[in-house]
Structures are given as C-alpha cells and as structure tokens.
Amino acid sequence: MSSTINALTSGGGLAMAGDTSGQLALQSAGTTFATGNQYGIGLGTAVPSSGIGITFPATQSASSDANTLDDYEEGTWTPTYVSSGGTLGSITYAGREGRYTKIGNMVYVTATFYTSAFAVGSGTGTLQIDGFPFTSHANSAHSSYAMSDVRLFVTNNPNALRQVGNSTKATLYYRSSANGEATDLPVSSAGTGGANNLVTFAGCYTVS
C-alpha cells in the first residue's frame, strides 16, 4: 500500500492524488527547510526548476557542522592573464573556456584558453591567471592542479599552478631544473607569442 500527497496549484492545501504541479513546503517552527515539486527537492526556499534532483539556495547557507553538505553549484568561468605587478601588455584571446563544480568548500575547475597575440609590453611581476569562480581559502597551499598542455612561453615554460590565498587568482610556476624548487614565473618569460598559444589545466582548490 502506498500514499500520495501532492500540493495544489490553486486554493492552497493538499491533494491526495492527481495534482502534481504545485509546491509542497516542509516547515519546522514556521521556517521552511525544504520545498518539493515535480522536479525534486529544494533546500530551504530554493525551488527546483528542471530535471530531477536536489536544489541548493543561490546564496550558500553555510553550516557549522563538518558533516553537512551545504552547497552545490555548476557553471562556467573566464580565465584571464594578469600580472602581480598590476600591468600587462597587449593580449588577444582566440578562445577561452572554463568550467567549475563546487561541492561544499571544494571547487573543481577546468580551463582551456589560447591567444593569437601575447606581448607583455611594460608588464612586471609574476604572471597569473584571474577569474576563478570563488575566492580561495587564505592558505594558498590548499590547491592542486595538473597542466596538460602549454604552448605559449619563450622561456621557463610553466608546469605548475598554485592558488593565491584569499583571491580569485592563481600564480604560474616553473622549475629551474629537474629537481629544483617551483619558482614564480616572471611576466618577462612570456615574451611575444603568435597563434595557437595554449594553456590547459584542471584541478581543485578550497574556499573558506
């Protein structure tokens, strides 16, 4: 034996069968903690709008319980070259694509972007990538990336990437020798590039 409870689309109340297009709110002490409809369950007042699944609020309602999943999000982001020195020369992007999935305080990202022109001009400092979808944890060590393809730099091709603490940026690194320490990549190493200059990477970082 089974029972069906549906939300009425008009007039309020519940229908025992037949009407499945309304919303059913579950409350405790007058506060809505879940909203259900034909698309699934929304946490809080979030309302599912397509497919079947669990919908989280657009703005995270963070839990202090380490065992509570309180956020999930998928989307795109746009990687952009910047300099830690504040200025960078002329860059023409031929294509850029970044995607992310955020689960709790962990952000998983991928990016592929290439330029048709890259001139550092009077740019100084370290070459960085900006535009990550969420501000990182203050401890920059909480990140890990794999670079699968790099075709851009005149010298010191980067082979590592590390998130800058409490920011939406990551710094490019290279190794000066086979066993050398990772070193910040100077803007001057990029030189002047031509067509099909490509960087591809994937990895993850944490947020506060």
Task: Explain the overall architecture.
The protein is mostly beta strands and about 210 residues long. It has two domains: about 5-60, no CATH class; about 75-205, no CATH class. The protein is about 0% helix and about 50% strand. The protein is built from no helices and 17 strands. Strands 7, 9, 10, 12, 16 and 17 form a six-stranded antiparallel sheet that branches. The protein starts with 5 loop residues before the first strand and ends with a strand. The mean pLDDT is about 85.
Key terms:
mainly beta, 2 domains, six-stranded antiparallel sheet, 17 strands, elongated
Shape: elongated
Q: If helices are DSSP runs of H or I spanning 4 or more residues, what is the number of helices?
A: 0
Structural class: mainly beta
Spans of at least 5 consecutive residues with low confidence: none
Q: In whole angstroms, how far apart are the ends?
A: 47 Å
The oligomeric status of these chains comes to: single chain
Number of strands: 17
What secondary-structure arrangement, pairings included, does this model have?
Elements: E1 6-7, E2 14-15, E3 24-28, E4 31-37, E5 40-43, E6 53-55, E7 72-77, E8 80-83, E9 91-103, E10 106-119, E11 127-130, E12 143-151, E13 160-163, E14 169-175, E15 182-184, E16 192-193, E17 197-206
Parallel strand pairs: 5-6
Antiparallel strand pairs: 1-2, 3-4, 4-5, 7-9, 8-11, 9-10, 10-16, 10-17, 11-14, 12-17, 13-14, 14-15
